[in-house]
Amino acid sequence: MRQLYLAATGMNRGKTTVALGLFAAIVARGHRTGFIKPVGQRYAVVDGTPADEDAILMKATFDLPDQLDEMSPVHIPRGFTRAYIEGRVTADLPGRIREAHAQVAAGREVLVVEGTGHAGVGAVVGLSNATVARMLGARALVVSEGGVGRPIDEIVLNAALFEKEGVEVVGAVVNKVDLDAQPDLPAIIGRGLAHHGVRLLGVLPYRPLLSNPTLAMLAEQLEGEVLVRGPTLEVVIEHVLIGAMQPHHLLERVRRGTLVIAPGDREDAIMASVTRRLVGPPRGSAPGSAAAPPSPPNDSIVGLVLTGGYRPGPRVLEAIRHADLFALLVRADTYQAASAVHDLLVKTHPADTEKIELIKALVAEHLDVDRLLDLFATA
Asked: Is there a contact between 292 and 357 (Cβ–Cβ < 8 Å)?
């Protein structure tokens, strides 16, 4: 059986994207394929069973028959690390992983094993990615993101820890590369990695839909009160503006998918955003009607984050509702809110059908899946 152990070089590098796309491509080739995420950090409870979000995504997307507690045998809730260090965790975690691995692997020709973060994540509880890969007898594929020096540095660093544990790194995939602006970047990265004995097995182009958060992620991860949901929370945030300037200057900077962050008492910025929402861009599109708010959202302002805990007055709040413009009220100040938006964890969920189809298409087009399977069979 071929085992592809996927690790990333950090958060938001695209490990789940690669796992999902590869899984789809392998299944399309007729291989009996399974999925397991031995150690998870972000989990949800489905029908009473806690499981890692990525295991839930894969089970739902591909209608896998495996039980969630087999696909996600160990998950680390808040406080688990301290309890482990203090000796209050007595469960046989490696044994649980081995047992689940045997169940999922049974009858499979290929097993996609998704790690958690970089090679060292989980070391604090004795379950680093490198340790788990060695325990399962898997080879590793490392996922990083665009750039030149940083991905090479990160991949080499992670490869060193895998190799220290006796785990062979078959190659690397670099995600979020602007191929239009730098078409020669794959060749440069490939040569740079070759100096360290690491194969570059593919480059995935940057796509805003995959890299940018949605309003749903904003509502989920920022602590606050949703004042208006808008027509859909699946809208992608492509640009962020701070409403700390004159309204006409603010509107000059609006682009597709703009989120405006402003104090809740900045009525001028809020009303300018509402007006733009209702009538659309000043040129290049037909004006809307104040009596009929746009649905779905137009290509300008998609939402508001109102900071400082300042709730808008009734007139302004009614205008936001009339425009059907997403609005989230937070107690944090504007700088803190903007930093939190910048740090949002971008994840793919089973309901993100457009994103999932794009992932499948990108991996099918830009990764040589047949070569990758051959390498994992013979490396």
From this structure: no
Q: Over the stretch 343-357, which tens digit does the pLDDT of each residue have? A: 888 888 888 888 999
Average pLDDT estimate for 284-308: 61
14: left (phi over 0), alpha (psi -120 to 50) or beta: left
What is the three-class DSSP state of 345?
coil
Whether 200 and 231 map to the same domain: the answer is no
Q: Which two tokens stand for residue 339?
A: 């930093």
Same domain, 114 and 247: no
Residue 368: both structure tokens together = 């040589």
| Percent of the chain's residues with pLDDT above 70 | 94
Query: Cα(43)–Cα(55) distance, rounded to whole angstroms?
Result: 9
Tokens of 139: 């080879």
Question: Do residues 307 and 359 both lie within one domain?
Answer: no
Three-state SS annotation for 4-19: EEEEECCCCCCHHHHH
State the CATH number of the domain containing residue 363: 3.40.50.300
Structural domain total, the chain: 2
Q: How far apart are CA 371 and CA 362, in angstroms?
A: 16
Per-position DSSP letters for 292-320, written without gaps between them:
B--SS--SSEEEEEEETT-PPPHHHHHHH
Q: Tokens standing for 351?
A: 């309901």
The pLDDT tens digits for 133-150 are: 999 999 999 999 988 899
Same domain, yes or no, for 137 and 44? yes
pLDDT at 283: 54
Confidence at residue 290, expressed as pLDDT on a 0 to 100 scale: 39
| Same domain as 145, residue 34 | yes
Query: What pLDDT, on a 0 to 100 scale, did the predictor assign at position 298?
Result: 45
Same domain, 369 and 338: no
Residue 119: strand, helix, or coil? coil
Helices (H) and strands (E) in the chain, counts: 16, 15
